[in-house]
Amino acid sequence: MGIFGKRQNKKFSYKPRFYKDGEEGSPFEMKHKFDGYRKTVGPSGNIKTKFKNALGELKEEPDREANRRILIIVVILILIFLFIIEFDLSIFFSK
User: Fold this and answer.
1) DSSP state of 14
2) What is residue 25's three-state secondary structure?
3) Does the pLDDT of residue 65 top 80, yes or no?
């Protein structure tokens, strides 16, 4: 607290080596690669708004091919697990 006030920080005009001026956005901004596709990421007000956004994203039509692929993978993994532990399927069938 001198007679001249606070000292100002020095400012430099730093430009990254491989950054082109024409590119959009800041080179220092860090974003997740899926942020552009989701509504729940970013500034959201209160908890009610967060829940509304999350439910809206859940209600959107899912990718049916991806769901089918995941289901097939899960079934195959379960069958492999049952084979490894030598599970006998004959207990489900009556003679």
Assistant:
1) -
2) coil
3) yes
